[in-house]
Design a protein that fits this description.
Shape: flat
Number of helices: 2
Oligomer: single chain
Radius of gyration: 19 Å
Structural class: alpha/beta
Length: 142
């Protein structure tokens, strides 16, 4: 008996392995307190709640979307075994880092001063658990 071919893409000869689009859809943010983190990201940073589902007493899934983003973040309880505050290097791209900086400051977020580099302008902030974020304006914008 022949094994089922589960490949979704095929090359020009009909063989598995053609072009595949990998779209980043969701980044899990490890937190100690989902409600506290949700309040920070929604009320202070400005993310939108996509869904908030409590499956049972031990499992909760909160999906938040940054303004203008196709990728969302997940604040979870009971699903991912990652140390709260261990997320680093996630970057939010903006057209105007100074406007983003002002928005974050107005929301009460402790954000660094804007740093100017040949590869773009940046400011940085952390959530209440210490998960680190960078806000980046690519060169030539603004």
């Amino acid at each position: 008996m022949m094994a089922a071919d589960t490949s979704r893409t095929r090359d020009q000869h009909g063989q598995p392995g053609g072009h595949v689009d990998f779209r980043l859809q969701l980044v899990t943010v490890p937190v100690t307190d989902v409600d506290r983190a949700k309040a920070f990201y929604v009320d202070q940073v400005g993310f939108r709640v996509e869904q908030d589902i409590e499956v049972d007493a031990a499992h909760r899934f909160v999906e938040l979307v940054p303004p203008g983003s196709a990728c969302s973040i997940a604040l979870t309880a009971g699903y991912v075994d990652a140390e709260p505050g261990s997320l680093r290097g996630v970057q939010l791209d903006v057209d105007d880092v100074h406007a983003a900086h002002a928005t974050l400051r107005a929301g009460g977020v402790a954000v660094t001063d804007v740093e100017e580099h040949p590869w773009g302008s940046f400011c940085f902030f952390s959530d209440p658990d210490g998960n680190g974020w960078s806000v980046h304006q690519p060169p030539g914008l603004g």
